[in-house]
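User: Please predict the structure of the protein below. I'd like the answer in structure-token form so I can feed it into my own downstream comparison script.

Assistant: Understood. Taking the following sequence of 119 residues as input:
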Amino acid sequence: QVQLVESGGGLVQAGGSLRLSCAASGSIFRINVMGWYRQAPGKQRELVASITSGGSSNYADSVKGRFTISRDNAKNTVYLQMNSLKPEDTNVYYCNAQVVRFLKEMDYWGKGTLVTVSS
């Protein structure tokens, strides 16, 4: 099995910063894409940022220039540095990993970490 454990969420004032981390563990051959999603109550989960094993990244327009995604392949860990946070960034943030196990790619999700930005 594969587990994704997120950390780093919390309460911050508008304009502040937080850094989220997500570590994958278990029976992992390779992780292709890792990413962060967020979901507000009653809304669909949306992509915040993703990064390939080679380091190519992709961002939602709403976070470009403020958030930076990175990963440590040796540690199977992905990070999300969030700067200039806004109240509308308040959400539960979920880590996602596309993990190759037994020659198959499978999607795994963390349980989520809450980010609250106060105005």
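That's the full token string. The chain has a mean pLDDT of 95.
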